[in-house]
Structure prediction request, 93 residues.
Amino acid sequence: MEDTDKRPQFGNRLLENVDEVFKHNAWDNVQWDAEQEKAAQEKVGQNSLVTFSEDILKDLDQNADKHWDNFYDIHQNRFFKDRHWLFSFHRVS
Prediction:
């Protein structure tokens, strides 16, 4: 069995107990209101202003595992280490 076969499927993290809101970094059944949607769109717009050269993008793509390892060396266990969700990412060219 490949690692990608073990990844959890999206759609099964349902927020049923508000006391567990910080159990995951995202929930699959939470609806945003118009204000949250607008704030998210503004943040995406701000983030889209930052761009990288093709060389940096190529390095980030080809050496992703090393960059993640460096990130976790710095931040230790303060972020989610389960990287299975990365296999669900589909890069659009």
Notes: The chain has a mean pLDDT of 79. The CA atoms of residues 5 and 54 lie 32 Å apart. DSSP finds three helices and no strands in the chain.
